[in-house]
Design a protein that fits this description.
With 198 residues, the chain is mostly helical. It has one domain. Helix 3 packs parallel to helix 5, helix 3 crosses helix 6 and helix 4 runs antiparallel to helix 8. It is globular. It starts with 5 loop residues before the first helix and ends with a helix.
């Protein structure tokens, strides 16, 4: 990878990070249910978790996975189970007035490890490695990871703020319930690409 590829990579990161996916839907739901500040560890977990994932995959872990295809099956099953659990958690989030007593946003560690079972982050990482990074070496892999970490920040801030602003109209428990169930349904729907893979 040479430096001329970096602007194209940054554009890919921006577009793929800004579009709806499990991370963004969960950030919006967390912003609505827990507010911006309580969602910060979730945002940091996404950013740093993906950077670590990209570096590990680009450093050769993906070749290990290719040598043992059963790992992909295990990840696929884990992805479905974990995302269904998260959808259930979102759907049953406490009403706004009870949010401090019941329910918690994802922690930094939960959010970071979620990247390994998130089908969208896998697609983003594999595309970045095969199209933009290739075998350019660990230095450029680190630069690519930093680009992901930096360019993804506005997207995470936007989705979380959007959820936080929506909380104003979600003070009504019925509206909040509809919102949470809609976010849960969209999260489950985002599993469709995973279920279609052979």
């Amino acid at each position: 990878m040479n430096t001329e590829v970096l602007p194209a990579l940054a554009l890919f990161v921006f577009v793929s990070s800004a579009t709806p996916g499990p991370n963004n839907l969960m950030l919006m739901a967390s912003g609505a249910n827990f507010g911006f500040l309580r969602t910060l560890p979730h945002m940091l977990g996404i950013s740093l978790g993906f950077m670590v994932m990209l570096i590990l995959l680009g450093s050769g872990v993906v070749q290990v996975f290719d040598g043992f295809p059963v790992i992909y099956t295990v990840l696929k099953v884990a992805s479905v189970i974990y995302m269904l659990w998260l959808a259930w958690k979102i759907a049953h989030a406490a009403p706004v007035e009870k949010r401090d007593a019941a329910g918690k946003p994802l922690t930094f560690l939960q959010s970071a490890t979620f990247q390994w079972v998130n089908p969208k982050t896998w697609a983003m990482a594999i595309t970045a490695i095969t199209v933009y990074i290739g075998d350019a070496g660990l230095f450029f892999l680190g630069i690519a990871a930093c680009i992901f970490g930096i360019v993804n920040i506005p997207s995470m801030l936007l989705w979380t703020t959007l959820g936080q602003q929506m909380a104003r109209i979600l003070k009504n428990p019925k509206r909040l319930k509809v919102f949470n169930w809609t976010m849960a349904a969209l999260l489950v729907a985002s599993l469709y690409p995973v279920l279609q893979m052979g």
